[in-house]
């Protein structure tokens, strides 16, 4: 039996830089902490570690961590995981489509970034990237 680890890929170079630094325990420059603060960084790290612990996106869905929610409108195809009351980690499964069968096979999640879900206006705003 093959074992897959749900793998996190990144939306862009900046998001990748922040997450790689976050996961580099020995040589971290604390880039994310400097950008979004220690408390929110701790929540991001926790959710990231939870994501990569699963072998498929459907397992992540069944676990119901972080109140995983499918987004709609201009964010259709992406999902949010709660970090705090106002902040969400936005991810996108890299699959052929969003059918249950495709999500069972999906072992790559693209990390799009972190948003302030309530923001200063009625529209949510990106914190990362």
At a glance:
35% of the residues lie in helices and 23% in strands. It has helices at residues 13-23, 31-36, 38-52, 57-63, 100-105; strands spanning 7-10, 69-70, 79-82, 87-93, 108-116, 125-128.
Describe this structure in words.
This protein is an alpha+beta fold and 129 residues long. 35% of the residues lie in helices and 23% in strands. The chain is built from five helices and six strands. The chain has helices at 13-23, 31-36, 38-52, 57-63, 100-105, and strands spanning 7-10, 69-70, 79-82, 87-93, 108-116, 125-128. A hairpin with an 8-residue loop joins β2 (69-70) and β3. The protein is globular. The model is unreliable at 1-5 (pLDDT under 50).
N-to-C CA distance: 37 Å
Query: How many strands, what sense, and barrel or not for the largest sheet?
Result: 6 strands, mixed
SS-derived structural category: alpha+beta
Evaluate the radius of gyration.
Answer: 14 Å
Quantity of strands, as a count? 6
**Quick one: overall form?**
globular
Strand content: 15-25%
Residue windows where pLDDT falls under 50 for at least 5 positions: 1-5
Report the average pLDDT across residues: 86
Number of helices: 5
Order of helices and strands: EHHHHEEEHEE
Percent helix: 25-40%
